[in-house]
């Protein structure tokens, strides 16, 4: 590491750690699923290690097993490093509230030397320049990883001790202000979600646009389809309640499972569902021909519904195919709905389907298998949909889209603000570890003296006998 400020040095993570202070978690049979308990000492996992903050997700083992794994113990002030995932190395400090704990595999504990600020080391590991320096050490593509040896050898810029304290103070002051700003933006995001929900609720209950007694009543629309309104519904004048099955031009249809194949016919991915619409660009090439795919081609006006998801809030979500484009089919993860016309405007169906009125029905009907929430055709057919008068439907679509577009614009502004805040954090850390965040003081003890003391102390330690790693 070159170009360091005067009085700074570069040292490896291993050199800056206490003797035997760098270790990863137990592997193989030493820590298995059956070892976890409802209470007891904590297990630090990847999901606990945030970018500069500890995330309090809990996992436990019993006291007896903890005593067998004390080599991997974590104490207050240890630096916890994720060795797997995005943003490597990603580090945080072990909080005082953690109590007895160990690290799990894919997590590394770094116990700083007593003369080095653990907070300084943690922020250094999260700094842009240090992260950039590990690029060649990262293994894997789908699951990026840095191994224990590479982390030990990772070079860290070390400021004089007094300057370390000034740097940590300056970082935390800057981040405290950014935290406050981000908290405000997240509050706005929650308010925007409530605003969106309120708009949809007002629309689906007939309070968003005025009714016109000259509009074609919904009962006539249903009669033209040979369907009868559901009795007993308390709806605005001119509206009616109908079962989804009574509004179909043809039966619901599941898609087909298709394996990926380069050069095959395009098929949508589940990620094509975007805010009530279908993104035709979210495709893969499937192992089938155009002839095979023909029964599953989508067209403008089709409504596609998610059959399963690990989240209850996402299962059964739907999206409208808003226009025709290059031929594309839909997969078995989606159910296709085609409405008869005229009855319910397809754009209004997209608004209704993702509103609380429909979500309550679907979430109440879902079934779970192996942690996956699922809906089927009969559940979808049974969904009750409020049908406004025909002319009112167009007014509703126009007004909902107008108001939602404002909410979406505000949401994009929030996203921009959060992205800028993240950029400012990176800039603060970059400046900090290039010696530009706080002033240097020529009277500070040079970091080389600190490093010499640490090295002398480490060399005076008795050499521990190396033991073979347990594999069972």
Walk me through the structure.
The structure is a single chain. 34% of the residues lie in helices and 19% in strands. The protein has 472 residues and is of the alpha+beta class. The strands form eight sheets. It has a four-stranded antiparallel sheet with strand order 2-9-6-7, covered by helices on one side. Strands 4-3-8-5 form a four-stranded mixed sheet. A hairpin with a 2-residue loop joins strand 14 (273-274) and strand 15. Helix 5 runs antiparallel to helix 11 (390-432). The model has no long low-confidence stretch (mean pLDDT 93).
Quick synopsis:
With 472 residues, the chain is of the alpha+beta class. It has helices at 63-68, 118-125, 128-133, 148-152, 161-204, 218-224, 290-293, 346-353, 356-365, 377-381, 390-432, 447-460; strands spanning 9-12, 17-24, 36-44, 60-61, 73-74, 79-82, 90-93, 101-103, 107-112, 155-158, 240-243, 253-254, 260-268, 273-274, 277-278, 283-286, 303-306, 308-309, 318-320, 334-337, 367-369, 372-374, 384-387.
Instruction: Return the average pLDDT rounded to an integer.
Output: 93
Low-confidence stretches: none
Distance between the termini: 40 Å
What topology, given as strand order, has the largest sheet? 2-9-6-7
- Biggest sheet layout: 4 strands, antiparallel
General form: elongated
> Tally of extended strands?
23
Q: Portion of residues in helices?
A: 25-40%
* Helical stretch tally: 12
Helix vs. strand class: alpha+beta
How large is the radius of gyration? Answer: 30 Å
**What percentage of the residues does DSSP assign to strands (E)?**
15-25%
């Amino acid at each position: 590491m070159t170009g360091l400020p005067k009085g700074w040095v570069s040292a490896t993570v291993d050199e800056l750690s206490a003797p035997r202070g760098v270790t990863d978690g137990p592997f193989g049979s030493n820590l298995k699923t059956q070892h976890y308990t409802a209470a007891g000492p904590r297990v630090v996992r990847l999901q606990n290690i945030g970018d500069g903050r500890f995330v309090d997700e809990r996992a436990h083992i019993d006291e007896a097993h903890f005593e067998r794994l004390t080599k991997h113990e974590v104490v207050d002030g240890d630096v916890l490093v994720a060795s797997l995932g995005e943003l490597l190395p990603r580090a945080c400090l072990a909080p005082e509230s953690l109590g007895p704990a160990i690290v799990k595999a894919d997590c590394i504990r770094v116990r700083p030397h007593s003369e080095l600020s653990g907070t300084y080391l943690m922020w250094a590991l999260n700094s842009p320049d240090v992260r950039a320096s590990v690029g060649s050490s990262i293994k894997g593509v789908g699951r990026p990883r840095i191994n224990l040896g590479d982390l030990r050898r990772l070079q860290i810029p070390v400021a004089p001790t007094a300057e370390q304290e000034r740097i940590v103070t300056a970082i935390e002051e800057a981040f405290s202000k950014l935290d406050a700003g981000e908290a405000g933006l997240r509050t706005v995001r929650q308010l925007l979600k409530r605003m969106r929900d309120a708009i949809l609720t007002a629309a689906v209950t007939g309070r968003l646009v005025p009714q016109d007694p000259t509009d074609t009543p919904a009962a006539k629309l249903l009669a033209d389809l040979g369907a009868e309104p559901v009795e007993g519904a308390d709806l605005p004048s001119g509206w009616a309640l109908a079962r989804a099955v009574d509004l179909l031009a043809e039966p619901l249809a599941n898609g087909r499972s298709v394996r990926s194949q380069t050069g095959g016919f395009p098929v949508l991915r589940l990620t094509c569902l975007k805010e009530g619409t279908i993104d035709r660009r979210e495709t893969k090439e499937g192992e089938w021909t155009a002839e095979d795919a023909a029964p599953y081609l989508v067209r403008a006006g089709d409504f596609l519904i998610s059959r399963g998801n690990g989240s209850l809030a996402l299962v059964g979500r739907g999206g409208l195919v808003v226009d025709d484009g290059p031929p594309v089919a839909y997969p078995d993860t989606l159910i296709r709905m085609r409405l008869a016309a005229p009855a319910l405007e397809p754009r209004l169906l997209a608004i209704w389907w993702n509103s609380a009125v429909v979500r309550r029905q679907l979430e109440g009907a879902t079934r779970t298998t192996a942690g996956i929430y699922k809906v089927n055709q009969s559940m979808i057919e049974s969904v009750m949909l409020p049908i406004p008068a025909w002319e009112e439907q167009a007014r509703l679509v126009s007004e909902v889209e107008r108001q939602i577009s404002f909410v979406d614009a505000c949401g994009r502004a929030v996203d921009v603000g959060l992205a800028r805040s993240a950029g400012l954090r990176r800039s603060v850390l970059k400046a900090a570890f290039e010696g530009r965040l706080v002033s240097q003081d020529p009277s500070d003890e040079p970091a080389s003296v600190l490093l010499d003391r640490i090295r002398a102390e480490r060399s005076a330690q008795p050499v521990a006998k190396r033991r073979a790693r347990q594999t069972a």
